[in-house]
Design brief:
Length: 262
């Protein structure tokens, strides 16, 4: 009888142990499943947040950027540019379209309180005819060109943001801006006489317009933080505000920025 009781007790204890171990295994499996689901859910939330931020109607972005490049045509290939400023934009539409063109429309502005152009230096002289004799009298040679400083604002940026991938969102844009420089920009001519008494580059203007177009992309390092790279083709023209419009027909300028999204 005692042996039977012992056998029954051992069997009961074994059954309990097996049951406990089974429940623990199920609990562990459930825990692992929940943990994996939780991580997947968190990642999905991060991805969705990024997509929702980019596609949210009336979402804002703002940040800082630097930009630099050089002239490429019209004898301006030795002109160089360096800018530093800020960017702000507002997404005006939800994501629309299909396929790779799916995206949203954004209106943005940029301001560059630091603007410099490094140009070649050359010599000029002012020459005028004498009132009675008509003899040409010239001033001493003086230097024009060199470094120009100023400020630029681009109040109209029309940008299309493609949906892209989880971290990568390309864009294209068209824009127009205004530039002011501390001297009339750019100097023009070469080592020849200037047959009018008009100063170093009076025929140009301190005011120029900067129509431009570009491409680039946002790279999201976090759901609402992105590093931005862009390339712009920029035209500089005074629209004949001066007697002459030497301008810069085309320059290519590359930008690097960091953006916060709200």
């Amino acid at each position: 009888m005692n042996k039977n009781v012992q056998r029954i007790g051992l069997r009961a204890i074994l059954a309990i142990v097996v049951s406990v171990m089974g429940n623990a295994a199920v609990a562990q499996s459930t825990s692992n499943s929940v943990s994996a689901d939780g991580r997947a859910s968190m990642q999905k939330t991060v991805d969705d947040l990024r997509m929702e931020t980019m596609g949210a109607h009336q979402a804002w972005e703002y940040g800082g950027l630097i930009q630099g490049g050089k002239g490429v045509t019209g004898g301006r290939d030795d002109f160089k540019f360096l800018l530093a400023g800020v960017h702000a934009g507002k997404i005006l539409t939800a994501n629309v379209g299909k396929g790779f063109v799916r995206g949203n429309f954004e209106y943005a502005v940029e301001a560059f309180p630091f603007w410099q152009s490094y140009t070649p230096k050359f010599q000029r002289a002012n020459c005028v005819p004498a009132p009675v004799t008509g003899t040409i009298a010239c001033s001493s040679l003086f230097t024009v060109g060199g470094t120009y400083s100023g400020a630029s604002i681009t109040p109209i940026i029309l940008r299309w943001n493609f949906v892209g991938t989880r971290r990568f969102s390309p864009w294209i844009q068209a824009a127009g801006g205004l530039l002011w420089t501390n001297h009339k920009y750019p100097a023009f001519g070469s080592q020849v006489l200037n047959l009018s008494n008009d100063g170093p580059n009076t025929d140009a203007s301190v005011w120029n317009f900067t129509p431009q177009g570009g491409i680039g992309f946002h790279y999201f390092v976090r759901p609402r933080r992105s590093i931005d790279l862009g390339a712009n083709a920029v035209h500089i023209s005074s629209a004949s505000l001066g007697d002459r419009n030497p301008g810069v027909n085309a320059s290519v300028q590359f930008s690097l920025g960091y953006t916060w999204w709200k």
